[in-house]
Amino acid sequence: MAREIERKYLVQGDSWKALSRKQTHFAQGYLNDLVDCQSRSSVRVRIEGEKANLNIKSLEIGLSRDEYEYEIPLADGEKMLKTLAVGPVIEKIRYLVDFAGRTWEIDEFLGDNQGLIVAEVELESETDQVELPEWVGQEVTHLARYYNISLSKTPFNQWSDDEKLPA
Prior knowledge:
- InterPro entries: CYTH-like_dom_sf, CYTH_domain, NeuTTM/CthTTM-like.
- The structure is a single chain.
- The chain is mainly beta.
- Helix content is 10%, strand content 47%.
- It has one domain: Beta Barrel (Hypothetical Protein Pfu-838710-001).
- It has two helices and nine strands; from the N terminus they run βββββαββββα.
- The chain has an eight-stranded antiparallel β-barrel with strand order 1-5-4-3-2-6-7-8.
- The longest helix is centred in the middle third of the chain and has 10 residues, at 74-83.
């Protein structure tokens, strides 16, 4: 079992793009419907460039969550997205940016979530201190609406102006 520990932030401006060392197109869909059910995890299939993964995450909001990820054949992943995904498929471009000894994953969302850009940084422990680059804005780690599972139910383009501002 792996425990994912990460912080999420909104991104300001686009100066980070010039620092990007890699970008990859992602498409992901959820295979379980979490509305009115007793599920304690999300199950998703993700196409990441030319590879596919099946991912299971505990449904916790905050710094750390259980996460399991298994590579699957690309053709299987593509078929699962087309035939088994519940709700819309989330698409985004993920950029990797190195800053102060850490790799930041910056997700620029597409489609119904266009306009939303979120940066994530993984940590070794919940008490790790993170040096923030100038392009990092408000932290949204504890706001469920910024998680992909929430974006698959209520895309960014359906949010009110108030919802687009962190609380």
